[in-house]
Amino acid sequence: MTRSEGSLRLGKAIGILLCAAILASHLFSMSRWSEDRGVNDDICYLRQAHLFQRFGLGGLDTSFARDDDGYFVAKMKKLPTWRDGQGPVCHTAMPETGKLVLQYPPGTGLVLALFPSGHQVVPLYAICTLIIFLFAFAAIWLSRSRAQLAIATAFGFVAIYVMINPVKASYSIAPTMVLCAAAGWLTARLFAEERQMPRMLLILVTGFLIGIAVNMRVPNVLLSTGYCVYLLVAFLEAPKATRFLEGALFAAALVIGMIPTLAANAINAGSPFATTYSAGDVVPPSLDAETIRSYLGDPQSLLILLSAAWTVWIWRRGHGRLACLLGSGLAINLAFFVSHPIYTQYYVIPICALTLWTLLFASLMPREAASRSAALPPPRSSPARL
Fold first, then answer.
1. Nearest partner of 224 among 196, 249, 244, judged by Cα
2. For residue 94, what are the β-bridge partners?
């Protein structure tokens, strides 16, 4: 082992220890969290979990009439805004079914239902944060230079840090972050892979993961937009059966992943494609100066700038296909949320996470792709994938 190799190994150990230190700090902080912090969204996700624990898959039916054990009413009475006689929060009246139902998709409640009642939020966040640490560990371990190591370590530190702030703001974001990290790794693998069958499998699994993410938050469907643009451009550029099949596989996997939400919509709203959200959440897009100022003044803006700058950098380095996927996805997501009248500190976190995880792993994989390509006979008129 050379001195430089030994130095790099030592650096990796230090990077992993730094990430492990913030992980331990987060786990200690999470251990003291309360599930009754007085937030409307919290108790509604917990009601989802309660329904799944009582009725199994029948918990997809979120009619308020099923609160015959008083679980949700008892939760509402702990809210600081509670007043006698008020209606249930986070519920929407559905004229088609005559039900008063939860507005959220079922994924977050289903994940929370895996843990015992009263002790659901802490293990959810602890496990999701541990998985994010493992992805950071993998990135650090894959580093082949001091520069890569420094980037991977800093990235891992920030990725673990945000699992409390701002991810704690909504229970739906914690599992979303895990899915974004996994999809980012798979996307980087996709652009490092030249063989057709492995590419098909990567596209299939990536589409399925993003479909699963829609079950956590309906706006997560926007995470698929970059992939749709990239696959469409690739097909128009070279209209071959394999390109068409790639797009079809992604679309099919996306829909399959969304099946729990489609089923819940059919049960609660009367149609798989009808929304259970209230009118205030489905208003047409419009630019509002206050919303724009909110994003510009929030730490989210730093992640947006980093995502955009890194995407532009890889485009200038000749990786136009990956830049097309990430840049179009980032632009469409930003356009949607900036024109949405409701602002929160976590709305653009998923697309930034997906973009940055993809860029990080893509920066660590080219040498592997290059060495593999050198060992194989050159394909006929096969354009560069990246």
1. 249
2. 99
